[in-house]
Amino acid sequence: MKITSANLYMINLPLQSAFKTSFGQMRTKDFILVALHDEDGRTGYGECSAFSVPFYTEEFRNSAYLLLKDILIPLLLRQEITTPAQLTNLFCAIKRNNMAKAAIDTAMWDLYAQKSHRSLAEAIGGNKKEVLAGISIGIQPSPTVLVQKVQQAVKAGYQRVKVKIKPGADYQYLKAVRNVFPQLMLMADANSAYQLKDADHLKQFDKLGLLMIEQPLESGDLLNHAQLQQQLATPICLDESINSLKDAQAMYQLGSGQIINIKVSKVGGLSIAKEIQAFAQRHHIDCWCGGMLGSGVARAVDIAAATLPGYTLPNDISASQRYFAHDIIKPEINLSNGKVKVPTIPGLGFKLDWDTISRYTIKENKL
């Protein structure tokens, strides 16, 4: 494969409602759509999920846009690429910036799948025809409102519910949900809102039979996560802490957690996500695919990733209408009996909705 040109689209896609976490709230999903055009006239698409400010990782959208435009895509143009895995070496001199790299990696996998006349899931080695869907619910104003949101999610068919928490909006909120839904696969996501000194408070969560507590401590703090896991019966899942295969290996060796949330965008794309999944599977570590409030392009990639055999738990792959009045793909992603069907069309499996893309694009570059 040889990339001859590319387009970048900076997009602000409105959310149905504000999404609140421990570090703030969002009313739009701000992202970059990358389109790579090859010498045979095909186009592959990828999404850079970097937020507008660098509160989640060191990346933010404006910096990622410049990196893509001025460095990464110029490095890629006219290169002969046999497999997307080659991009790891091509970009090795550029430190981190995984979300910008992931946009190119996933677009190349889309092209690779199209060229081989396979679905993206088939091209990466997936073996599922449908994937289990979970839902993420932001921090709510009260336990009562949270229970109402969970009731709506369960009625919609979601098999696992993730609740965002922070100090002051955690145990009592989760307890209220558990009282109404004693059998629900329920988990909490702290987004690094706690410290090791909060261990006694977090021990209360063991009473609730949670599937996991996700990323309770700082992202780089594998040692304290290991100490915390020793004190908790509830499995710790690491998200922000896992940005590479080496991070997953360190987690395993230190005992920092029992579950990994593999976010394709955050680890640098499908090529690295496959490596982490394979390592986790060899060491009997449960995995699931997390999202970044991504548009349909990112969710199409997540669906493919979740078909890999090492993904053992329900994924953060919700229906398009859960977050967006208008997604950027056709058909939009839908839920059926708590599952999402895996597309069989070559590549991503979806067409792009250019009317919606044009409406919400705030900046565009052709390279």
From TrEMBL:
Domain Mandelate racemase/muconate lactonizing enzyme C-terminal span(s) in chain numbering: 143-235
EC number(s) from the headed UniProt entry: 4.2.1.113
CDD domains xrefs: NAAAR
A Pfam family assignment: MR_MLE_C
SUPFAM superfamilies: Enolase C-terminal domain-like, Enolase N-terminal domain-like
Keywords assigned by UniProt, alphabetized: Lyase, Magnesium, Metal-binding
Cofactor(s) demanded: a divalent metal cation
One of the record's GO molecular function terms: O-succinylbenzoate synthase activity
Protein name stated in the entry: o-succinylbenzoate synthase
Gene: menC
